[in-house]
Design a protein that fits this description.
The protein has a four-stranded antiparallel β-sheet with strand order 1-2-3-4, with helices on one face. It contains two helices and four strands. It is of the alpha+beta class.
């Protein structure tokens, strides 16, 4: 099938899932802010993380250092996908009740 892409909020953290492979690119070394009250280093993301989801579905073994060719191939796909695009994440003002509901589900931090 076709690769699946994602981006994280207004950062340059991006991912690609192609077949059994998942690449996470964090060029600025930013810690993600996933949940309110969680320490910044709770879920660190390296500049490049590559996982073989068929053998490592929990993403415990970063293969980026030993699979440099695959990282380069997936980074080219990411670059092509996001070329010329600004971050598509737009800040929205949410009604307080909806914000609380989404926050309780883990979708809204702060």
């Amino acid at each position: 099938g076709k690769p699946a892409y994602s981006e994280y909020d207004e950062t340059r953290i991006r991912t690609i899932r192609s077949g059994d492979w998942k690449l996470i690119v964090n060029p600025d070394g930013l810690p993600p802010v996933c949940m309110e009250g969680v320490p910044a280093d709770f879920y660190p993301i390296a500049p490049r993380e590559l996982y073989d989801l068929a053998s490592d579905p929990a993403e415990q073994h970063n293969l980026a250092a030993i699979e440099a060719g695959r990282v380069a191939e997936l980074e080219k796909l990411l670059a092509r996908r996001f070329a010329g695009l600004k971050s598509r994440a737009l800040r929205q003002e949410l009604p307080e009740e909806l914000r609380k509901e989404l926050g309780a589900l883990g979708y809204v931090a702060n």
